[in-house]
Amino acid sequence: MSTLIAILVLGVIAALFGALLGFASVRFKVEGDPLAEQLDALLPQTQCGQCGYPGCKPYAEAVANGEAINKCAPGGEDTIKKIAELMGVEVQPLDANHEADNTPKVAFIIEEDCIGCTKCIQACPVDAIIGTTKQMHTIIADECTGCDLCVAPCPVDCIEMIPVATTTQNWQWDLQSIPVVQID
Amino acid sequence: MESVIERIQKGNFWQFHGGIHPPEQKFLTCTKPIASAQIPEQLIIPIRQHIGQAGDLIVSVGDKVLKGQILSVGDNPMSLPIHAPTSGTVTAIKLMAIPHPSGLRETCLILTPDGEDTWQQRHICPDFQLLSKGKILEKIVNAGIAGMGGAGFPTQVKVSTLAKIEYLIINAAECEPYITADDLLIQEHSPTILDGIKILDHLLAPQNILIGIEDNKAKAIETLQKATADIDHIQVCVIPTKYPSGGEKQLIKILTGQEVPSGVLPSSLGMVMQNVATCFAIADAVINDTPLIKRVVTVSGQALDKPQNVWALIGTPVGYLTEQCGYSNSHDKHLIMGGPMMGFSLANDQIPVIKTTNCILAPSEIEIASPFSSTSSKEVECIRCGQCADVCPAQLLPQELQWSAKAKDQPQLEKLNLFDCIECGACAYVCPSQIPLVHYYRVAKAEIRQQKLLDIKAEKAKVRFEARKLRLEREKIAREEKHKKAAEARKARMNAGTPAAKSEKSAVAAALARVKAKKAQAGSNQDIVSQADSSVEQIDDNKSQVANAIARAKAKKLAQKSQTPISTADAEQDTDNAAIAPKAQPVVTDKKAKVAAAIAKAKKRQATEQASNSDTQVLSTEETTPVSATSGAVQEPITDEKSQLPINKKAKVAAAIAKAKARAKAKKETDGNINAQPSSTSTDKPTVVPAQEQYTLAAVASNKATVTLHTETPVAISPVNKTATASDERKKKVAAAIAKAKAKKLVEKTQQASPSTSEVKISESDSKPTTEAAIAANKKARVAAAIAKAKAKKLAASSDKSQPSE
């Protein structure tokens, strides 16, 4: 009799907790993929596609689903470190296929060479190029992510990637190289 | 509880946390009068000398300017104009090193003085009370006045605040150990300073004006007290000497007991602070119409023979000033701009004095070791003594900050309120381990600022990317919608029932039927074309039972006959040119022609295989072909003879030949490219384009070959044709279909060919020529197809003519 009661009691408790869990899973359901969102926030948002995905978000989703974490060339080591921390995995060196220098750059159109083909405008993932058919195009430097995607489609090779100049606004202290030498 | 004023009157001040007492060095300069400004040979005037944006230059190289003339204008509230400190010529506008710890270069205007020091027209205004507030503010802006205590915040922004001001605090504390510029300015020019204070009083209407001054400036205090004796609401507050009491937040705490919360401006607490030098500049600007073109600079340090305060024109190179003060140590120069506690080392002595420069320090090596010398880096590990936390005036935890800064732990740094650090250097001063703590904080601050900028940029990029995606999606939907609507409109128009609609309808129906028929033809043709690659037997599928029987009988006969033509064909054929094969046997029988074609086809196939294996072995191909050709010839005719419509078959064969030929050529070309490219990438453009061109030429040639075959057929096959019904119609269609199929194949091949070439490319930029070439080849292919079609039509017409004659 006591065994029966024990089984009964345990069964009731199990059912109760089951119901509770079931209710919780419905009530506290998380919309979307929070991990992918967090990963997306870590990525540099250059939308360059060097990782093989069409933009940062798709790559974030892929990483959340087990893709390698070392494919973001613009983010470089820092981003890999952050992703590794978030995912709780080992830090890996940047994928050899995606080895690229991640010095910040912006695209620049050599305006006298531009033929106004609009190919770069179609390629730009962040709409940072202004221009129209048979009119000279130009880059909005502030909006340019330096993703490089406009360089290849240009039929006249008039787009250059220029490293962002150091100004007093973005200058970084470097304690190792304090002896500043000005040759003028 | 007693009020703030009561406490001040009693001399009871509050205390800020921490602070240090570095050894006083003011005696070096505090007793000497301010030396008058001398004009150097050249003035270097940076266009941005304050916090905020630079204005736009309104003078150009070669312009003659007068003293006080405005040189730049800006429409941004945070931009300030600059002025010509003396009369002279603008000799250059270029990038020069500016007074900044980085030693970076910014746009500077180079003014060569003419030595006459001619003023521009000035409008002296003895009574500022007659001016409106707006007019005074305008004068302050136009004079380019920025906070002269060191930060360089545009003054008009501070004084145009709408908040109700309780305390106007005049900062005369001057807590840095060496600097005496404000002290001397008060001693010599207290009436002007008082005018400035009155102007600020007029603008801000504060309840009380507090002048904070450290008790180590006896003469200045006396002068100020005398000057303000008859003004009730001005209190001269003599505060105990302690570094950094001159900091804005620290002075507010000392005088009023209030703490300014992190990230809040003092104006929101009803307080505005101005430096005494700024008051002087305001008075000069409003009353004497003199813009900010000179300031008092303390040139001090034990490396100088006669340290003193000087009136320096803005833009004077610091080297000129130190020379005036007897800088003997010409080698191994170490100059500091600003005080010893908060200043920074200069990269060279050609850096100019700007609006915020209050001190040039030329210390001896014993006084302050140069950071460039090897003896200066004596930093050892932190021993956790906690002295830094005791002296921090912002009540931060310098030691924890240091660890986080070294670990680049930005979230933790922000949690520890790094941005409340005023970089006063008290922690580094007391550190027994000689850790340059402030340097670590500056590095960390710059990094965090940079990271924030990047984050903002990333967020913006994300938003723009998403917006673009949405836009593209929307455009796609809109386009589809438009097409749908257009189609519906067309339908509606056709169903309208008018005669025009009916005719249109029938025309459309006819066109549809035509397209259908064409498609069917092209489909069967394509089948055969593709089958020719893999197995010839599949053609059987298309044959009817009756045809089979007839064909078999014919095939037997042919098998016997074919032995001879093969040998002749072999002898005459030149391996590469399939078109020669049919030509070689002028008017034999249609069967013979077919056999020849079959041989050519087989040969081509063989050649193709060979070419793909080793593209250079053309000779060996020749050797192997006869064997396979024979077998091919035996097979081909049999299947051909099974055909119900020999002409159709022929056309197919011709297509196959052309195709095989084109493929062989293409392969050779691409192989050739592959071989050629790795060796020299620079010649990519020339090699690829001709290759595609040749390829297209090959296609055209094969088309011609087909046509040649056809031109022969009417004569050769005419007996068969006579029995066939509507054979001409078929022919026409077949020719068109072949051309179409060919063009298709060609396009496919060009597309295949271009990736294969681009794969071997080393640099990205080289891929462009390929795509270009591919596009060109595509176009050519289309042109070729069009030509072929036209030719086929002609052919059909000519066969029409020839038939009646037979």
Describe this structure in words.
The complex is a heterodimer of chains A (184) and B (806). By secondary structure, chain A is mainly α. Among the domains of chain A are: 34-98, Electron transport complex subunit B, putative Fe-S cluster (3-methyladenine DNA Glycosylase II, Chain A, domain 3), CATH 1.10.15; 103-165, Alpha-Beta Plaits (2-Layer Sandwich). In chain A, 33% of the residues lie in helices and 8% in strands. Chain A is built from five helices and four strands. Chain A has helices at 2-27, 34-42, 56-64, 76-87, 119-123, and strands spanning 105-109, 129-130, 138-139, 159-163. In chain A, the strands form two sheets. A two-stranded antiparallel ribbon of chain A has the order 1-4. A two-stranded antiparallel sheet of chain A has the order 2-3. In chain A, a hairpin with a 7-residue loop joins β2 and β3. In chain A, α2 crosses α3. The longest helix of chain A is centred in the first third of the chain and has 26 residues, at 2-27. Chain A is elongated and about 95 Å long. Mean pLDDT of chain A is 85; it is low at 177-184. Chain B has 806 residues and is an alpha/beta fold. In chain B, β11 (294-300) and β12 (308-313) form a beta hairpin. Residues 532-543, 563-588, 614-645, 672-725 and 753-770 of chain B have low confidence and may be disordered. Chain B is elongated. In chain B, the strands form four sheets. A five-stranded mixed beta sheet of chain B has the order 12-11-15-13-14, sandwiched between helices. Chain B has a four-stranded antiparallel beta sheet with strand order 1-6-5-3, with no helix packed on it. In chain B, 54% of the residues lie in helices and 9% in strands. Chain B is built from 22 helices and 15 strands. Chain B folds into three domains: 4-36 and 123-361, Rossmann fold (3-Layer(aba) Sandwich); 378-495, Fumarate Reductase Iron-sulfur Protein, Chain B, domain 2 (Orthogonal Bundle), CATH 1.10.1060; 513-805, no CATH class. The A-B interface holds A 40, 43-47, 55-57, 125-128, 143, 145, 151-152, 155, 157, 166-168, 170-175, 178-182, 184 and B 96-98, 100-106, 345, 347-348, 350, 371-372, 436, 439-440, 442-443, 446-447, 450, 453-454, 457-462, 464-465, 467-468, 764-765, 767-768, 772.
